[in-house]
Amino acid sequence: MGDRNDAVTANLQRYRAALGLSLAQLAERSGVAKATLYKLERGFTNPTLDTLSAIADSLLVEVEDLIALPTRPPVEIVRAGEGRDISDDESSGQIVATTAISAGTLEIHSQRFHAGSASTSVSHGLGTREHVLVRNGSVVVGPLGYEERIDAGDYASYAADGPHVWRVVSDGPANVWILLAFPRHDVYSQGQR
To answer: In CATH, which superfamily holds the domain spanning 75-189?
Structure first.
């Protein structure tokens, strides 16, 4: 039962952060007391089905989403030189990832992070996924508590709809490509799941 309670705690924090809601705002939207939400997010209490249902409705997710155990690693990594080979007579290379973004938005960033820089982002919006390819240097990235180090040539992908970390761990700057895949906003704004 402990794993399931840990899942509720993590999922509640992630979905609330993704919508940018404070505990007070979620309490107002859901009708669940702020003190109860506080205890749930810290794993101090077990929720009833009615409580989970009210919270899920307010966060635009299903009860199953709130109690779901992680089904895959929070950070997917493809190391330099790995991937599906697409080399031919003119070039050599690999496909490191294929992602469907059906009717969403894709932002592509080329960024240089200064040595020693670090930040924690709250959320890029519900359902957003971040893809990072390190050109040179080394960074630690990933959802808060699940950060992974990636080096030059490595690729990482993770959910960016909750708190996530960026930290340069190389002696010099880190140059990276960042692709942010945003889902269609109308799916979440209209309460569809």
So the answer is: Jelly Rolls (2.60.120.10)
